[in-house]
Design a protein that fits this description.
The chain has about 290 residues and is mainly α. The protein is built from 15 helices and 2 strands.
């Protein structure tokens, strides 16, 4: 049995607690192992990377690797980081605004075909982004926007799953009675959305922004198809280009591993800074 009944309710047995704890520890190790490997590998030089144990330290060469990655190709790695910040911030902000507006419209306005439209949006959210990368490339090639910032940003603005979340948050946080009171006071629909709805849906909006930011930062296939100039690469595609270069010329594995470690630091800072909104936003969505 996994639980016993006492006067105060159901209490898990020692075996259940031990099994749950063991599974959580295994999951924790599995989750942290890649980051630990990056941390260890970024402190090694080229020879130590291949001759020493992969999950423990040897001589510390992190400072040399750090200088090498920022000096390589006139600091192109710094440009990649800035590009990722630009794509992620602008793309997530545009996606969040459109998602909240579309979700608000689906939630609060009656119109013919609303149910069918919402079903299409839910279905579209199930499509993997990698499946859409090549068709999007063909579309943007026809309108001559490939290798521009818009070829990356415009697809990021359209997020069916964000629209679904926007509808969920609008349903739970925007009372219809408040909209009716604002209309009686003479407020237009645009003003109601910008002044009232966005404020009430703030926590949900931050949650959507966080999900979009992380997804865009880690996205690889869309920039791979759309961009061909090294200076416009995000950090994910830039590090991949170094991996390809290592296969044909010099061995750059130390720079790739150090760059991979540095590339997750902005994400970690971002997540810790907004973690309280993450928790409350997820809770609000789950209650719906």
């Amino acid at each position: 049995m996994s639980a016993v009944t006492t006067g105060g309710g159901v209490r898990p047995t020692l075996r259940a607690v031990a099994l749950t704890t063991a599974l959580l520890i295994v999951f924790l190790v599995y989750s942290l192992a890649p980051t630990w490997f990056l941390l260890v590998a970024s402190t090694k030089n080229q020879s130590d990377l291949y001759s020493t144990f992969g999950l423990w330290f040897s001589a510390n060469h992190f400072a040399d690797n750090f200088r090498g990655i920022w000096d390589y190709h006139d600091g192109v790695f710094g440009r990649w980081i800035l590009n990722s910040v630009l794509y992620s911030t602008v793309g997530a902000a545009g996606s969040t605004l459109l998602s909240l507006a579309a979700g608000y419209g689906l939630s609060k306005f009656e119109f013919r075909g609303r149910g069918a439209l919402f079903g299409v949006i839910v279905g579209a959210s199930l499509l993997p982004s990698t499946l859409l990368a090549f068709p999007l490339y063909l579309v943007f090639a026809d309108i001559h926007l490939t290798n521009t910032v818009w070829a990356v940003l415009i697809p990021y603005f359209i997020n069916p799953f964000g629209v679904y979340l926007g509808k969920v948050y609008a349903d739970s946080s925007m009372p219809t009675e408040l909209m009716e009171a604002a209309r009686i006071d003479g407020a237009g629909e645009t003003r109601i959305f910008l002044s009232i709805a966005l404020n009430l849906m703030r926590t949900g909006g931050i949650t959507i922004f966080m999900l979009d930011f992380v997804n865009i930062w880690n996205n690889f296939f869309l920039p791979l198809f759309m961009l061909n100039g090294e200076r416009s690469f995000p950090v994910t595609l830039g590090l991949f280009s170094w991996v390809q270069q290592a296969q044909t010329s010099r061995d750059m594995n130390t720079l790739v591993l150090t760059g991979s470690l540095l590339s997750i630091i902005p994400l970690a800072v971002f997540m810790f800074a907004l973690q309280k909104y993450w928790r409350s936003g997820i809770l609000m969505g789950s209650l719906k």
